Amino acid sequence: MNLQPKHTSVEDMIAILSGTFLVAQGVYFLQQAGLLTGGTTGLALLVTQFVDLSFGTLYFLFNIPFYIMGWHRFGTQFALRSVFAGGMVSLIVDHISHVFTIGWLSPLYCGLIGGLLMGVGMLMIFRHNASLGGFNVLALICQDKFGIRAGNVQMAIDICILLASFFFVSPWLLLCSVLGAFVLNLVLTMNHRPDRYVVCY
Predict the structure, then answer these.
(1) What residues are paired with 2 via a beta bridge?
(2) pTM for this structure?
(3) Torsion angle of alpha carbons 25, 29, 30, 33, nearest 10°?
(4) What are the counts of helices (DSSP H) followed by strands (DSSP E) for the chain?
(5) Other Cβ atoms closer than 10 A to 170
(6) Which of 8, 108, 171, 199 is 20–30 Å from 77 (CA)?
(7) pLDDT in tens, 129-142
(8) What DSSP character marks residue 2?
(9) CA dist., res. 74 & res. 70, Å (int)
(10) Do 60 and 84 touch, CB atoms closer than 8 A?
(11) DSSP 96
(12) Contact criterion met (CB below 8 Å) for 23 and 124
Protein backbone atom coordinates (compact mmCIF):
# COMPACT_ATOMS: atom_id res chain seq x y z
CA MET A 1 0.00 0.00 0.00
CA ASN A 2 1.33 3.44 -0.95
CA LEU A 3 0.06 6.60 0.72
CA GLN A 4 1.54 8.88 -1.93
CA PRO A 5 -0.32 9.64 -5.15
CA LYS A 6 1.12 7.89 -8.18
CA HIS A 7 2.57 10.11 -10.90
CA THR A 8 4.05 9.39 -14.30
CA SER A 9 7.75 10.00 -14.89
CA VAL A 10 6.89 13.05 -17.00
CA GLU A 11 4.72 14.49 -14.22
CA ASP A 12 7.51 13.89 -11.72
CA MET A 13 10.08 15.64 -13.89
CA ILE A 14 7.85 18.65 -14.59
CA ALA A 15 7.00 19.00 -10.89
CA ILE A 16 10.64 18.71 -9.78
CA LEU A 17 11.74 21.28 -12.37
CA SER A 18 8.94 23.63 -11.34
CA GLY A 19 9.79 23.16 -7.67
CA THR A 20 13.49 23.84 -8.17
CA PHE A 21 12.66 27.01 -10.11
CA LEU A 22 10.44 28.29 -7.28
CA VAL A 23 13.07 27.46 -4.65
CA ALA A 24 15.79 29.20 -6.68
CA GLN A 25 13.59 32.30 -7.03
CA GLY A 26 13.05 32.31 -3.27
CA VAL A 27 16.78 31.98 -2.57
CA TYR A 28 17.48 34.82 -4.99
CA PHE A 29 15.10 37.13 -3.14
CA LEU A 30 16.82 36.32 0.16
CA GLN A 31 20.25 36.75 -1.41
CA GLN A 32 19.42 40.17 -2.87
CA ALA A 33 18.22 41.48 0.48
CA GLY A 34 21.19 40.09 2.41
CA LEU A 35 18.95 37.69 4.31
CA LEU A 36 19.72 34.21 5.56
CA THR A 37 17.65 31.12 6.14
CA GLY A 38 18.07 27.72 7.71
CA GLY A 39 19.49 24.48 6.42
CA THR A 40 22.30 24.13 3.92
CA THR A 41 20.81 27.07 2.00
CA GLY A 42 21.43 29.34 4.98
CA LEU A 43 24.90 27.92 5.51
CA ALA A 44 25.80 28.51 1.87
CA LEU A 45 24.44 32.07 1.95
CA LEU A 46 26.43 32.77 5.10
CA VAL A 47 29.70 31.22 3.92
CA THR A 48 29.61 33.14 0.60
CA GLN A 49 30.39 36.23 2.70
CA PHE A 50 33.75 34.76 3.70
CA VAL A 51 35.00 32.64 0.78
CA ASP A 52 35.39 33.24 -2.93
CA LEU A 53 32.95 30.55 -4.02
CA SER A 54 29.47 30.97 -5.46
CA PHE A 55 26.31 30.08 -3.59
CA GLY A 56 25.58 27.25 -6.02
CA THR A 57 29.00 25.64 -5.54
CA LEU A 58 28.81 25.76 -1.75
CA TYR A 59 25.18 24.64 -1.68
CA PHE A 60 25.88 21.55 -3.77
CA LEU A 61 29.01 20.64 -1.78
CA PHE A 62 27.22 20.99 1.55
CA ASN A 63 24.44 18.71 0.31
CA ILE A 64 26.61 15.78 -0.81
CA PRO A 65 26.54 13.97 2.57
CA PHE A 66 22.75 14.29 2.65
CA TYR A 67 22.38 12.89 -0.87
CA ILE A 68 24.28 9.84 0.37
CA MET A 69 22.03 9.68 3.44
CA GLY A 70 18.94 9.86 1.22
CA TRP A 71 20.30 7.09 -1.00
CA HIS A 72 20.78 4.78 1.98
CA ARG A 73 17.37 5.53 3.45
CA PHE A 74 15.08 6.09 0.45
CA GLY A 75 16.83 4.37 -2.46
CA THR A 76 18.59 5.18 -5.70
CA GLN A 77 15.67 6.89 -7.45
CA PHE A 78 15.16 9.30 -4.56
CA ALA A 79 18.88 10.07 -4.40
CA LEU A 80 19.24 10.68 -8.14
CA ARG A 81 16.19 12.93 -8.22
CA SER A 82 17.51 14.84 -5.22
CA VAL A 83 20.94 15.34 -6.79
CA PHE A 84 19.21 16.63 -9.92
CA ALA A 85 16.95 18.97 -7.94
CA GLY A 86 19.80 20.32 -5.81
CA GLY A 87 22.00 20.75 -8.87
CA MET A 88 19.26 22.69 -10.67
CA VAL A 89 18.79 25.06 -7.72
CA SER A 90 22.55 25.67 -7.61
CA LEU A 91 22.67 26.33 -11.35
CA ILE A 92 19.63 28.61 -11.47
CA VAL A 93 20.62 30.76 -8.47
CA ASP A 94 24.15 31.27 -9.83
CA HIS A 95 22.89 32.36 -13.26
CA ILE A 96 19.51 33.96 -12.62
CA SER A 97 21.06 37.45 -12.57
CA HIS A 98 21.62 37.15 -16.34
CA VAL A 99 17.87 37.28 -16.92
CA PHE A 100 16.47 38.88 -13.76
CA THR A 101 17.73 41.65 -11.50
CA ILE A 102 16.20 43.48 -8.54
CA GLY A 103 16.85 47.18 -7.98
CA TRP A 104 15.47 47.41 -4.45
CA LEU A 105 12.98 45.50 -2.35
CA SER A 106 12.13 45.66 1.32
CA PRO A 107 13.96 42.97 3.32
CA LEU A 108 10.64 42.24 5.01
CA TYR A 109 9.01 41.53 1.65
CA CYS A 110 11.99 39.46 0.51
CA GLY A 111 11.77 37.37 3.66
CA LEU A 112 8.06 36.72 3.15
CA ILE A 113 8.13 36.01 -0.59
CA GLY A 114 11.42 34.12 -0.36
CA GLY A 115 10.12 31.83 2.38
CA LEU A 116 6.81 31.30 0.58
CA LEU A 117 8.42 30.44 -2.76
CA MET A 118 10.93 28.10 -1.17
CA GLY A 119 8.24 26.37 0.89
CA VAL A 120 5.93 25.79 -2.08
CA GLY A 121 8.84 24.65 -4.25
CA MET A 122 10.11 22.21 -1.63
CA LEU A 123 6.58 20.88 -1.13
CA MET A 124 6.31 20.12 -4.86
CA ILE A 125 9.66 18.35 -4.80
CA PHE A 126 8.77 16.31 -1.68
CA ARG A 127 5.48 15.21 -3.23
CA HIS A 128 7.36 13.69 -6.18
CA ASN A 129 9.77 11.46 -4.26
CA ALA A 130 12.74 13.83 -4.17
CA SER A 131 14.31 16.47 -1.97
CA LEU A 132 16.92 19.20 -2.19
CA GLY A 133 19.34 17.29 -0.01
CA GLY A 134 20.40 19.10 3.11
CA PHE A 135 18.56 18.91 6.37
CA ASN A 136 15.22 18.33 4.67
CA VAL A 137 16.45 14.78 3.96
CA LEU A 138 16.96 14.39 7.70
CA ALA A 139 13.50 15.90 8.25
CA LEU A 140 11.94 13.40 5.84
CA ILE A 141 13.77 10.53 7.56
CA CYS A 142 12.43 11.67 10.95
CA GLN A 143 8.91 11.87 9.51
CA ASP A 144 9.22 8.48 7.85
CA LYS A 145 10.82 6.71 10.81
CA PHE A 146 9.48 8.49 13.89
CA GLY A 147 6.27 10.16 12.66
CA ILE A 148 7.57 13.67 13.42
CA ARG A 149 6.36 16.16 10.82
CA ALA A 150 9.08 17.19 8.38
CA GLY A 151 8.16 20.87 8.78
CA ASN A 152 8.62 20.75 12.55
CA VAL A 153 12.03 19.11 12.29
CA GLN A 154 13.12 21.56 9.60
CA MET A 155 11.90 24.51 11.67
CA ALA A 156 13.91 23.44 14.73
CA ILE A 157 17.09 23.08 12.66
CA ASP A 158 16.50 26.39 10.91
CA ILE A 159 16.03 28.25 14.19
CA CYS A 160 19.37 26.90 15.46
CA ILE A 161 21.19 28.00 12.30
CA LEU A 162 19.58 31.45 12.31
CA LEU A 163 20.49 31.97 15.96
CA ALA A 164 24.09 31.08 15.10
CA SER A 165 23.97 33.82 12.43
CA PHE A 166 23.21 36.50 15.02
CA PHE A 167 26.75 37.91 14.93
CA PHE A 168 26.87 38.23 11.13
CA VAL A 169 23.73 40.19 10.24
CA SER A 170 21.90 43.17 11.72
CA PRO A 171 18.98 42.53 14.08
CA TRP A 172 16.51 43.79 11.46
CA LEU A 173 17.85 41.49 8.73
CA LEU A 174 17.93 38.62 11.20
CA LEU A 175 14.29 39.28 12.10
CA CYS A 176 13.31 39.27 8.40
CA SER A 177 15.33 36.08 7.91
CA VAL A 178 13.54 34.38 10.82
CA LEU A 179 10.19 35.45 9.40
CA GLY A 180 11.11 33.95 6.01
CA ALA A 181 12.19 30.68 7.62
CA PHE A 182 8.95 30.60 9.62
CA VAL A 183 6.84 31.05 6.48
CA LEU A 184 8.83 28.35 4.66
CA ASN A 185 8.35 25.82 7.44
CA LEU A 186 4.72 26.79 7.99
CA VAL A 187 4.01 25.89 4.37
CA LEU A 188 5.67 22.51 4.84
CA THR A 189 4.07 21.79 8.21
CA MET A 190 0.56 22.62 6.98
CA ASN A 191 0.79 20.87 3.63
CA HIS A 192 3.30 18.02 3.78
CA ARG A 193 0.96 15.55 5.46
CA PRO A 194 1.30 12.04 3.96
CA ASP A 195 -1.46 10.83 6.32
CA ARG A 196 -3.90 13.01 4.35
CA TYR A 197 -2.90 11.80 0.89
CA VAL A 198 -5.22 9.65 -1.20
CA VAL A 199 -4.44 5.97 -0.76
CA CYS A 200 -3.30 4.34 -4.02
CA TYR A 201 -2.67 0.68 -4.71
Answers:
(1) 200
(2) 0.83
(3) 160
(4) 8, 0
(5) 10
(6) 199
(7) 888 878 867 877 78
(8) B
(9) 5
(10) no
(11) G
(12) no
